[in-house]
Amino acid sequence: MKLKVLLILMLAAVTFTSYAQDGGIRGKVVSRNGRVALSNVQVKIESLGLTATTDKDGNFIFENLPAGSYTVLFSTPDFEDLNLMVRVGDEHVQDLKSVIIVPSGPGTVLDDAVFAEFDSDSSSSDTQALPSSLSSSKDLFNNIASYRFSEMRFNVRGYDSQYSDIYLNGIRFNDAMTGYGPWSLWSGLNDATRNQENYTGLEASDFGIGGIGGMTNVNARASQMRKGFRVSVSNGNQMYRFRAMVSYGSGQLDNGWSYAFSVGTRQGGNGYVDGVYYNSYSYFASAEKLFGQNHRLALTLLASPSERGAQQAATDEAYALFGNNYYNPNVGYQAGKLRNSRVRNTHEPIVMLNYTWDMSGNTRLNAATSLRFGKNGYSALTWNGGPDPRGDYYRNMPLSDQTQIVPGITSGETIYFYDRDAIISGSVWDGLIDYDQLYDRNHFIETESKIAKLMGDQYRSNYMIEERHTDQLDYNLAANVEHNMRNNMRIVGGVNLRVNRTNYYSQVKDLMGGDYWYDIDKFADRDMASETAAQNDLDYYWATGHARIARVGDKYGYYYRAHLLETNAWANYTWGIGGFSLGVAGSVGYSNMYREGMWRKGLFPDNSKGDSKKLDYLTYDAKLSLGYKFSGAHSLEANVAYMQQAPKFATAFVSPRTRNTTTPGLKAEKVFAADLTYNLNLPYVKARLSGYYTTIEDQSKVISFYDDSRGSFTNFAMSGIDKRHYGVELGLSVPVWNGLSVVGALSWGDYTYTSNPDFVQTVDNIDKIVLKDRVNWDGYHVESSPQLAFNVGLDYRGPRNWFAGVNFNYYDNLYLSMNPMYRTATAVKYYANVLTSGTATPEQQATAISAIKTIRKQEKFDGVYTLSANVGKNWYIHRIYMLGFSLEVKNILNDQDIRTGGYEQMRMSKVRGNGGEQIYGRFPSKYFYLFGTTYYLNVYFRF
Q: Residue 73's closest CA among 97, 110, 44?
């Protein structure tokens, strides 16, 4: 989970090459369909009053032009007009080569190049607030919800994972750049991370104040690991086929030492989605020493190096053509072998040192320090020019023309031809990337003089696999003191320091049969008639006279660093008398972050290299907790919190890959939260009932995408995003007979946007705001988590260590992630003009109102239900050894039509109205679907 910057292929690859001639512009105009040369195309430079017409081969030329920038207009019947900005220098003729114009019938939007970055990596659990590893929580509701509801990507109270604090050995490890949970850093180390302290809702703890979504501290030290050997082997069909793990804990020896280690592997493919696989290992080692009776020192090392194939969302049209809801647009065949272009490759070790000093019977000092380092890469297919090779690219989809239909404007004859073409296209669509074809196309020797002189007969790759890196160097220091006072009073206070430097860059992973990649900005190369503007590393160009020649393992495209410094001091005071309890907690901190550009971007030579503006924020948290225990069976708890938090680096810069510009309107985020809980604990029933109310204000968000309304790659920066979350939670357990219990959980909430955020839109090729307006989000629903989730089940704990269970889950009120552009004035401008024109007929007004509602409507998924079951048993052998197994089967009903999430595409269709107006519409949304019946079998032996 977690939002990244998107790259989009615009019209085509156009190389602006300079020649030592008189100033001018030349080129060849071709149709997008078949790249056929077009004659009699009118080419205008209106600012100079010049007009040219293409010859029979599509060629045109303007000569003897003064130096400057010009807008060139291409127009001809049956084709969309095209405007290109061209910069002309002294004594240079800019050769535009092939200028591609689009037929005015089907397909009026432009190519998008690398839209895949917006899709979710379904194999990552970091965006979940409560992954299934927390099913051991002592809290009755979370114990059920965190595991049973995880199949639908459920987030407790609708919060993103940045609001749940995750600690490892007393140090907060939420990602420094995004705030997301860090679960993938130690995935596969179940035995080593089994010991956890869990705090729900607004509770504070002994190791920090916490957020609004609860806290977890994973105790992964040698003394905390279960004593003895444990060997387990697992088989499943959901994310991988095979897992093996070996663990050992010595316990505390007579000499005060404790040792522990754990190693494991997860291997194999997914049972449903092609290309989803794990090639993952994990390791953990810890040594701990008790000095005397008061001092303890522990050293811990852990990591989970992984290679994981990712799935992407797709449209329902693609799923239907593929034959099921598990199509993966990332995959294709190379030399007869399946290959996935989207692979996450990570290895981020963590080394930690923990120290504990029992200063007295009432006072303890805890100190910890850690260092996280290594690599985190995510591969993607990219290209410099040519057609988009992805099987689900919208122009490759049979029904793509349907986006061009506008009621009352598109003729019946045109619709007939659209339908006919869809039938023909659907008969040949296979949805796979043809890697062999891409290798053939990369056997290309560049003939442009400068490159040809440099590279000779080496092949220039037009397609390649890149790997986008987010490599962190993350240092943490934490210390706290616990002190028990008289009269049931206790105070814990501490300080934290975090220093993070993250390297962002893209790296050449596979040249796919070519020898090198010529590193220029393909968008600037098309739009800007300047060789320097197209440079990704302008200093390198100045030093060598040419763009970087990138080979496998080399950086290319972009390279910058994020710097973050965070520090805070906190305290938590608790007091109890009789059945009454009081807790007061607070913290104050400081956050500083900035961008450091490592390369000078040709488009922004004065605003890309070096340090950006420093962003400083004062942060603070305050929490109050009141409780009353009427008896051992009944108690009430009330909590209230107010927080001010710094924005995350991921939303603080408009386009960090290209420049230092910060997000306009960026503010510290404000959070208010309150909850009330009733606990029931009787021999015949246990329950937890909670109500909560939360407001989040001044969030920010940046999305980069290809804006069809502007025909350009743009950045959409929103600020002033406000949300409101309220609802109830219920956890229930009722023993009924001889080890059989009825268990259940209910989560009902209402999560909505409560503001119309401001936004500014910038274009990557110019450093200025091109549009400033508001997104009409007030009243829309927060996306991506069911707002109603219900579980009821039977749990059985029988004699001779048998256990079993069956669970029924129901989900509703799950909403699709929204494209903010659909809710702007630009998207509905044509229809708004119809309503205000004063000349529209009642029928035209009704059509316009319906169109506006269609564009702005947020999709709500249908209510769904699932059924799962589990069974297991342990055998104790001579009271020394234990052999056991567990088997779980999910989605027993094999319902493969359950949507678990998705998003509206960022692009908009574009059709020209009868009066020449631009009419915008939606593109089909993309979805993820729940897997059919899955199983997981685990066999373990402990001694």
A: 44
pLDDT digits (tens, 9 = 90+) for 332-375: 999 999 999 999 999 999 999 999 999 998 999 999 999 999 99
Tokens of 776: 């009409």
Spatial separation of the C-alpha atoms in residues 489 and 484, rounded to whole Å: 6
- For 146-151, the CB contacts below 8 A with 24+ separation are 148/745, 148/791, 148/793, 148/807, 148/809, 148/868, 149/745, 149/747, 149/786, 149/789, 149/791, 149/809, 149/811, 151/809, 151/866, 151/890, 151/891, 151/900, 151/930
> What stretches of 454-579 adopt beta strand conformation (E)?
463-484, 489-510, 517-519, 548-550, 555-577
At 844, the amino acid letter reads Q
Asked if 504 and 559 count as a contact pair (C-beta separation under 8 A), the reply is: yes
DSSP letters spanning 821-832: GGGSTTTTHHHH
Instruction: Report DSSP letters for 677-717, one per residue.
Output: EEEEEETTEEEEEEEEEEEEEEEEEEEEEEETTTTEEEEEE
Q: State how far the Cα of 680 lies from the Cα of 686, in Å rounded to an integer.
A: 5
How far from 230 is each of 186, 244, 249, 939, CA to CA, in Å? Answer: 18, 11, 9, 11
Rounded Cα gap, residues 342 and 331, in angstroms: 8
Element (H, E) at 31: strand 24-31
Number of Cα atoms under 13 Å in the Cβ half of residue 18: 16
Closest CA to 194 of 122, 154, 249: 249
- What number of CA atoms fall less than 13 Å from residue 224's CA on the CB side? 22
Nearest to 147 by CA among 168, 162, 129, 132: 132
3-state secondary structure 318-358: HHHHHCCCCCCCCEEEECCEEEECCEEEEECCEEEEEEEEE
Task: Give the residue carrying structure tokens 């009353």.
Answer: 628
Specify whether the backbone of 683 is left (phi greater than 0), alpha (psi in -120 to 50) or beta. Answer: alpha
Whether the CB-CB separation of 164 and 216 falls below 8 Å is answered with yes
Rg, Å, the chain Cα set: 30
User: pLDDT, tens digit, for every residue of 236-283?
Assistant: 998 899 999 999 999 999 999 999 999 999 999 888 999 999 999 999
Backbone angles phi and psi of 776, in degrees to 5 = -85, 80
pLDDT digits (tens, 9 = 90+) for 894-934: 999 999 999 999 888 888 777 778 888 888 999 999 999 99
Note the pLDDT tens digit of each residue in 532-587: 999 999 999 999 999 999 999 999 999 999 999 999 999 999 999 988 999 999 99
Instruction: Report the half-sphere exposure of 168 (CA within 13 A, side-chain side).
Output: 28
Judge contact between 463 and 512, C-beta under 8 A.
yes
| pLDDT tier at 517, thresholds 50, 70, 90 | very high
